[in-house]
Structure formats: structure tokens, C-alpha cells
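Consider the following input, taken from an annotated entry for CD-NTase-associated protein 15 domain-containing protein (Agromyces binzhouensis).
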Amino acid sequence: MISGILVRAIVVIVSAVFVIGSWVTTGAPNTSLLSLFSIAVLACTILLLTWDRWVWKWKVAQAIPGVSRDLSGTWQARLESFWIDPNSGKSPAPKTVYLVIRQTSSTASVTLISNESKSKSSLARVVKEDGSWLLHYVYTNEPRLEIRGRSPIHHGSAVLAVTGSPVKRLEGGYWTDRDSKGQLKLTKRSKKIAEDFEEAREALKGAR
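Applying the prediction step yields:
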């Protein structure tokens, strides 16, 4: 989120530049701009919030170098776990899960929803590293109460590589504090923000 402190700091800096500039060029400081301080703060706040919430997602804005890739929406994902069941000696079969990504130009959050649990990020960011966009996030997984005997609450992290502009897919690995790991591949997206498994499944029907 764009903070009020940041907005005020920008306005103060711009105002100071104009006052000092007028002082240097005319020999006397022009302080008339200071009377418009409140209006300037309001205007800057509206402009920055509009950018942070909506404008940065526009196709033209997405072409600007440095503007975060728009990943927001509900994604259908294939989750493949590399954990080995000690009883069978095999890994679980791949399963379909959903990642709900909420995003502004400056913040991101990730919720992974499966038929058994929900993971919510405590930290998430979309960053450009070595010319490629990545989604990093740290999460807490809370299984449904009836299965916590075999699947307790745990914590983990994931790094997903972003492909395409507009984004076409995300793919990468995850690790947990249960000494398990696996990979995720996201290929289908709906712009709707789902709240649970059934809603996510409905949102992705017919999506490409």
C-alpha cells in the first residue's frame, strides 16, 4: 500500500524544490505554493492509489520496464509432491489445487486452496531477478480439522518463475518444515478471486 507518510514526503520535497528554485532565480523565495499543501497531498494520494490499485495492470503500463507483472486472480495448478510415503514407498499422485493471488503494484498475497487444506502467505513479493520475474512467498498451511492427525499445521516457502507478458504460466518448487518438497505448475487463470475450493473450481471451468 502507498503510505500517507510517503505521499507527504513527496509533496514536501516537490514544494521545497519549487521554493528553493524560485529563491535562486528571483532572489526571493515564493511560498505561495505552501498554501496548496493539503490539496497537493490529496491529489498525490488519489493518483498514487489509482496507480497502485488499477492503472499498473493496464496493458500499456505492463510494458513499462520495472512495473511488476500482473499475476492477480485464481489459478488452477498441478501440485506434485516428492514426499515418500514410508508405508508404500511411493509419492502421492499429483493433484489439482488453486492459487489465489491478490496483488497491487506494491504488495502481493498468495492463498493455496486444496480439497484438504488452505495455505496463506505471511510474506509475498513479485521481483525481477537476472532479467526474469519471480513470485516468492512464505506460508502457513492449515489442514481441515478432521485430517490434522495425519497432516498437522506446517510452514513452507515457494519460488515460482513467471512466463509471458501478459503472464501465461507460473512454475517452480516449494519446501516445508516437514522435510517435504514438490513442484507447482500454474497454467489456467480466472480474474475472479475465489474464497474456497468449490468457488475456485467453478471459476476455472472453461478457462484456458
